[in-house]
Fold:
Amino acid sequence: MSFAVPAWDISSLPVAGSDDRFPVRRIYCIGRNYAAHAREMGADEREPPFFFLKPCDAIVQNGATIPYPSSTSNLHYEAELVVAIGTPGTDIPVSEANDHIFGYGVGIDLTRRDLQNTAKEMGRPWDMGKGFDQSAPCTEIVPAARIGHPEEGAIWLKVNGETKQSGDIKDMIWNVPESISHLSGLMRLEPGDLIFTGTPAGVGAVVKGDEIELHVDGVSDLTVRIG
Structure:
């Protein structure tokens, strides 16, 4: 097969304990999935889950330096547990959702908050506030066969060594199986899909030169720098 323009490389992440890589097909993100973060963003605590997407090539590898993005002066971090789908499915029951998970990672939903807020005020989509270049740093994917399916555990984020976010993944409004079930009723999930599962309270801005560290108990650690 020949292409009219050069084809691009497939975005992928390392798989822990293997030489294999996990190909990234789509990146789904859940908005306001921790009660304290929902409150700090002015939302009801138990509204139905909603989703937005980032392009698959927004992935950034662990340890990378990320250029400060264009068109913003208010770049925010959002620490997240990441779920990697390994088995396809539509209308997946909650009781079967874990069977569709290949593994887990740790990621940051970088957000151009000023662009997002302006879009909200104007009633416009806020894709450009979320789905920009290098907006999805993520660790290697740790297979569920190795760590099981974490239901609780600390999640924290530090900027230059100072803790900014601290919570527990058990505090999700919609847990992982519920989120997978709901999302699979909207879109067919396929192997290679990632789901960023929401962030605890404490989101805030970073500037050039900042180092961001992120941890989820029993999963992984992520470090990136803002160039």
Observations:
- The chain has a mean pLDDT of 95.
- The helical segments are 35-40, 113-121, 127-130, 144-147, 176-184.
- The two ends are 39 Å apart (CA to CA).
- The first strand starts at residue 12 and ends at 14.
